[in-house]
């Protein structure tokens, strides 16, 4: 299945389409400490949705997002992508489309351009190629002008590093972004740039794209999501108000 086909399928009327991602009774455990990190959880993310996830520190928000991204192995339950279970051989393909963005970016040594080129060296991206003009346009949108591609990553501020990490993801046209406090340690100007990039990516094809955004900032939470879910001690919950809003979509 190509990405275009995936997106087209995700863009079908919400009434008839399967969720972009659906978790069925997924669980995560810390085996060493014999502790449940994520209680049995059902969850659906539809194309077109922007979800905000809040909850106390240590409640399991990152555990949940990383499980949804299939970055950590599930201890129970299944994930479905466009209505299909994800076979082990398709996990790299799934991760290509469902991107996890962490609070502290991990960049490789070298220039910004080296970082943007890196994904295209992986087998799963061999059908695409680095597009410098597109990368420049994305950096322009984030207020980083000409010459930014040539900057050494070791010299970047935390905010600039996060912008690079995000552009590295956005240039690959993901379907969903799982955003784990992406602006929490940034200065206000960089935080705005990150929000702008994500908003433009979403608006470009909002019937096919979706976000889950973890935020501790109530004002930001209002800006970046319409559906609100909470995590407490590994239990995911959805306040009644957003159940009603979601019902109106169905
Ligand atoms: N891979 C792991 N193995 C074992 N324990 C883990 C693992 N990942 C997270 N934990 C533990 O699970 C609990 C939930 O952590 P998590 O990082 O998901 O919290 P959070 O809600 O994202 O918190 P914060 O808002 O501070 O980022 C913590 O007690 C953490 O130490």
Automatic annotation (TrEMBL):
ABC transporter domain ranges (all copies): 21-248
Alphabetized InterPro entries for the sequence: AAA+_ATPase, ABC_transporter-like_ATP-bd, P-loop_NTPase
Keywords: ATP-binding, Cell inner membrane, Cell membrane, Membrane, Nucleotide-binding
Protein biosynthesis listed as a keyword: no
Signal peptide region: none
GO MF entries: ATP binding; ATP hydrolysis activity
Keyword Membrane included in the entry's annotation: yes
The protein's name: ATP-binding cassette domain-containing protein
